[in-house]
Design goal:
110 residues; mainly alpha; three-stranded antiparallel sheet; Tryptophan synthase subunit beta like protein
């Protein structure tokens, strides 16, 4: 038995293994609404994961274009410049390289 709470349209908004807060309505695990809710959450998580990966692909593509002098950093809109600089800063602070290199060699200095 799983316990659900619903939104204002009557759709499942939360799913719990025991009654918690507003999740007091019990439904079987094979209930079509439960299965639909789980499937939708899985799809959302999958898209979120793909989006994160794609952001890195776009970022790497921009870095490559700048390294080849096909575009200049200053050609990018100011909000894009700010985001790229912030992401670069965070990666440097956390020593994150996304699995693309063993050091900071994937970061192009401007």
């Amino acid at each position: 038995m799983l316990y659900v709470s619903r939104d204002s349209q009557g759709n499942i908004s939360e799913l719990h293994p025991m009654p918690v807060g507003a999740a007091k309505e019990g439904l079987e695990a094979d209930n079509p609404e439960v299965l639909q809710f789980i499937h939708e959450r899985w799809r959302q998580n999958e898209l979120t994961s793909l989006d994160r990966d794609f952001v890195r692909v776009i970022e790497d593509t921009l870095e490559l274009l700048m390294a080849k002098d096909l575009i200049l950093f200053t050609d990018l809109p100011a909000p894009v410049q700010e985001k790229l600089l912030r992401r670069r800063e965070i990666r440097q602070q956390t020593n994150y390289n996304g699995g693309y290199a063993d050091n900071d060699s994937d970061i192009i200095r401007i």
